[in-house]
Design goal:
38 helices; 5-stranded mixed sheet; mainly alpha; single chain; Serine Threonine Protein Phosphatase 5, Tetratricopeptide repeat
Amino acid sequence: MIASLPAGLSRRLRQHPAGLIWSTLFLAAVFIFSANDIHDSDAWLHLSLGKLIWTLKGLPEHELFTYPSTDRPFSYSSWLFGVLCYLAYLLFNTCGVVLFKAAIITAAFFLLLRDALRPVGNHLMAVIVLSAVVILAQSRFVLRPDIFFMLFLGFSIFSLNAYLYEGKKYLYLLPLSHWLWANSHSSISVMAVPFLAFITGGLVQLYFRKRGWGLSSRAATPTAAQLKTLGLVFALSIAASLLSPYFTGQFFHGAQYLATDWYKQEIVELLPPTREILIVLWLVIGITLVSFLLSRAHFSFIHLLLVIPFMVLPFSARRFLFLIAIVAGPVIVRNIALFAESTNRPGLFRGKAAAAFAMGFLLMCWAAIFSGHTPLGLPNLRYRLSFDESAMPRGALDYMDRNTIYGRSLNPFTFGQYITWRGYPGRTVFIDARGYLSGELLELAGRFRDSPAILDELWRRYGFEILLMRYPSTGAADQELRSRLGNHFSHPDWALVHWDDVSMLFLRRGGPYRGLIERDEYRHVHPDMTYAGFQRQLPGKPGLLAELQRNVRETDSSRGRVFLAVVYSSLGRYREAIEAVRPVENTYMAREAHIIMAHAYKKLGDAAAGLAHLREAMALKEDVHVLNEAARLHLRDGNAAEALGYLERSRELDPKYIATYPMLIRAYRALGRKDEARRTEGVYARLKSSASLRAHFNRGLKAYAEKRYPAAIREFRQVLAADPKNAPVRTNLGFIYFDQQRLGQALEQFGQALRHHPNHANAHYGIALTYAARGEYDRAIAHFQRYVALEPSGYYSRAAKNKIESLSRMSTP
């Protein structure tokens, strides 16, 4: 059977039968894993732009998709990648796109594997290390040009190593490879790193060898002739990479994202690495450096210089972690294999025991990869050779298609490309994943939801009739603030006509869709309210129940079911509440569903079922509300000891949550712990006093948000009467006076806040605005600078930097 195979494969199979099997299994696993459904929102951007270029048979002169930028030149540095994606779709539909992605990723790992086996073919070690590389790089296994980045970077390093180790001529393909790279991804500037590492490291190694300083032949030191060849190929690659519609601009296109605060602060993958990512990064760096130490007998300056830039790059943004894994993986394998050879242990990682260990490790590793249970994993993977549109506004676009709604839409950053794919040229968008807007519009793009004035200004400029919105942040602080203020989107000129678990669709009143609004408007439901806020502000409007029933009937949204169940519970229809949320138990609102069912079962007299659902809710997320509800059920059944455990945990999570204390006092008394009950009563009395102040503060915030300034001032004054050093209250009071142009009183309040709390950032921002309004530019600049130092990111930090720049020009004679 072996004789019937191609000669090269037959020879390798005879020489390394186990290694070939390991390699085949590894690459098969990479391909299968990479063939998961396409879920990344950028996929629709590349497909849309690829379709546009293919249809026009070239690049358009001006921007076409985003209407605020139609006067700007067309910009898409990955045009070739987009065209290839669209051709895969055109030929084989969604299946073709998925397989195209999987093939590119598998090809990249094939090159990494081949490179790792040079010069010592330790297949088992290579498969183990590269499986770890898959874990670190899998977040980039998406339909983005990054996969071409992996492929072309891998081919560059593979070709250069093949030339030095074996004299192979693959490097003569590098100019063509780099032309493809330059037209597929703006990372082409990274092309220089392998060349410079091999040329500079080669010169160092050649110098050492000429001086007789004992470099091993395994270090792959180039000859002078080889160095000339490397320099020539490098020059040809640079020339080839300039054959792009953007010429030298392609080298700097990506840098604009890392140089602009908005991109670095608003795009998650460009944020600084998290603590978890830093731990992984330092671990990879440590393992790489240790591998060089182990292989010091065959030390390679070339490979050290190769990995150093990729060790540094991930510290700038979390998206670059995959690069150090891609580059360092084969180097680690090579170093350890050379260490084993130099210590006369060539069988290291090759025996039966090693194979058994490796098999167990790899099974665990790949089980974690496929299940998404890795530190940087992709959860909820599906394998249908299709697109996963669950995070896209599919329901809203279906509604728009059914009702022939076309034109300009105001939309969030992540929805633009999907709208374009589904509706261009009938629909155009405000922004897509390129973020191709002016700096001013980039800032406004994220703020129109919370500012009617900004929304009105954008409408006056661009005249859109469609408003498509995401739900607000689910961060704990944002949710709590919105819950306290009852904050939801509401604008008299916009009517909500569709909503589901992903998006809300509004149409402009008085425009071409008056009939649709009359028929489909949701007049009572505000689906962007928090669950807690909806419970607290449940309006007694007769139409609310009917609207929620309609939403569940039309969209079957989990959010709609939860809100419907809350209404059923408020009406005493507990069985219907349970049935409404039972289908939600395995969705993103499972916790809320369990809380509702626990309450309903308690009201129906089934305390055991209620406790069971509360435990399910706590398993998903432990918080004071659920803990207190569980304690309440136990106290009702006379089980104070069980209740006490929940209550003490609630106090530990939030010592200021006042509702915990009456039950905690009751539990202590029931258990005869009188001293603890008395101490807790004292804490409870102090908290009641501060709770009263917080209530005034919250009412003041709400009045301020609604521009009811006299009411807000009264509430804030109530707090200051009891707590005159309260910096947040004085700062908010200062902003009210500033809005009313009462600048002297504003200065007084901001100054009082800073006297008591010198590092209160908002007070610095407010006093800076006030000084600027009074023409005291130097003082304003000093406080803006202090604000930026205290709050280095976010909209107001970027606004402060702009203010510093403009005021500096104004204050210069």
